[in-house]
Amino acid sequence: MSGVEKELRKLPGVDRLLHHPALEPLRAEHGARAVADAIRALLDQWRARVRAGESTPPPEAWPELVAQHLARHGRPLLRPAINATGVIVHTNLGRAPLSPQALDAVAQVARGYSNLEYDLESGTRGSRHVHAQTLLRELTGAEDALVVNNNAAAVYLVLAGLCQGREVIISRGQLVEIGGGFRIPDVLRQSGARLVEVGTTNRTHLRDYTAAIGPETAAIMRVHASNFRQIGFVIAPALEELVALARQASPPSGERILVIDDLGSGTLIDTRDFGLAPEPTVQESLAAGADLVTFSGDKLLGGPQAGIVLGRTPLIERLRRHPMARALRVDKMTLAALEATLQAYRRGRALEEIPVWRMIAASPQELRRRAARWRRWLARHQIAAVLLPGESAVGGGSLPGETLPTTLLALESPEPEALAARLRQADPPVIARIRQDRLLLDPRTVLPEQERDLLAQLRRVCTDSP
Ligand SMILES: *Cc1c(COP(=O)(O)O)cnc(C)c1O
Predict the structure, then answer these.
(1) Closest residue (by CA) to atom 7 of ligand 1?
(2) Which residue, among 59, 75, 65, has the nearest Cα to 45 in the 3D structure?
(3) Distance from the CA of 112 to the center of ligand 1, in angstroms?
(4) d(Cα 175, Cα 173) in Å, to the nearest integer?
(5) Ligand 1 pocket, residue 174 CB under 6 Å
(6) ω before 100 within 30° of 0 (cis)?
């Protein structure tokens, strides 16, 4: 018998290991079947390792190996991560973290029954649309509001519901791709509306829009460029000018030419208060006379994934009754989180309560203090790190190229990629940035309650051998 065969024979049997007394708590917790599956998978791995020349672990090591295997493979595939990238609205990391108030509201409503579609006064069927509607109207000055699955759905519903079979005029500078393959021209085609492109990539004049208006025109649409910035020889008419043009060119009787404003991120708060470029606010867009405004719930609003449509009641009412509204509708958990998020704005507490705005509003001193505290903690554990001035980004298709000053914690490493990879494999995973030979961590996007985990993981990956 070869040495490998001898080693293979030392591997325990599935049944013997399954009934090992030390595994009783695991059987109680996960069930015998899951433990048996884990043992089989673990033994498969070890057969391969033994064939590759390793020796079999000693008998007493097996219960712990099974426990580790279960812990690693039994955890959910979708799980919390620590965002140390400094990109606040990070689409790949789940966009806006929710406020504690929003989380509470979700838990309350999801745990049991609710008045989701029940009118408590009359005791008859109600509408799920009323819940966020009042707050959205109050906060933005809009006549009416509709909440759907996301902003892509909002744009689609507006076009399909109000422009199908007719023309929508859009500047060539705004025929953008948002990410994840969401391209404005494609959405337009899918909605059944016909795209009329005007102007050039960098310059579109009011007269370009004027010339394109005809009997088939249903709307003029403005799309926020979101993820890129044009500088230099650039021009686009103001929203007010488009509104005036649409009014003036509408037939005296019959349907008015609509002005649709896809704000993308949409914000209720003026970003200039934080040293950032102006991001058009929802209120400004409505005040300028846009008939319909669409934006996301989980970008700068700081709430759950949702698409919000604001505008005049007869238009919103048509959208509400559109067959696709049912397919694009939001769940009670979304409505609960959105309502709680909007309540923070109404109480004037958005900067304190909504994580996205707390991160934007974080002062340079506070960020420096946090980074310095991390550095001192690591130094006490013999891990060298330095503080560097750096920049955080708002992200999420808002304010492209705009940054907020921050203080970064930098770890020097001959292999920063390997260090970053090990942090990604940690539990919870830590996502950092790399620049040259440094791993960079930005305190701005690390939630205070995640700091302990972050430091523990840093210590582990910096002191363990790979
Ligand atoms: C982000 C964005 C969208 C898509 O919004 P989702 O909420 O991700 O569906 C549409 N239009 C613009 C301009 C955007 O920035």
Answers:
(1) 151
(2) 65
(3) 32
(4) 6
(5) no
(6) no
Domain ranges of the chain: 3-73, 82-91+357-463, 98-353
What is the band of 76 on the pLDDT scale with cuts at 50, 70, 90? Answer: confident
Distances (CA, A) of 390 to 92, 154, 260, 419, 420: 22, 36, 38, 20, 18
98-353 CATH, one of 3.10.270.10, 3.40.640.10, 3.30.70.380, 3.40.30.10: 3.40.640.10
CA 281 – ligand 1 centroid, Å: 15
Instruction: Decide if domain 82-91+357-463 falls under CATH 3.30.70.100.
Output: no
Q: Where are the alpha helices (DSSP H) in 288-406?
A: 313-321, 323-327, 332-346, 350-353, 355-361, 364-380
For residue range 358-380, what is the model confidence (pLDDT) as tens digits? 999 999 999 999 999 999 999 99
**How far is CA 70 from each of CA 24, 33, 46, 256, rounded to the nearest angstrom?**
14, 12, 15, 63
- β-sheet bridge partners, residue 390: 406
Q: Is the CB of 446 under 6 A from ligand 1?
A: no
Q: Does the beta carbon of 303 lie inside 6 Å of ligand 1?
A: no
**Centroid of chain to Cα 130:** 25
In short, whether 264's Cβ falls inside 6 Å of ligand 1 is yes
User: How far, in Å, CA of 152 to CA of 188, rounded?
Assistant: 11
Is the minimum distance from the CB of 226 to ligand 1 under 6 angstroms? Answer: yes
Q: Residue 80, exposed/middle/buried by CB under 10 A (0-12, 13-18, 19+)?
A: middle
Q: Is the CB of 224 under 6 A from ligand 1?
A: yes
Query: 440 to each of 71, 159, 316, 458, how far by Cα in Å?
Result: 29, 43, 46, 12
Residue count of the chain: 466
pLDDT in tens, 118-155: 999 999 999 988 889 999 999 999 999 999 999 999 99
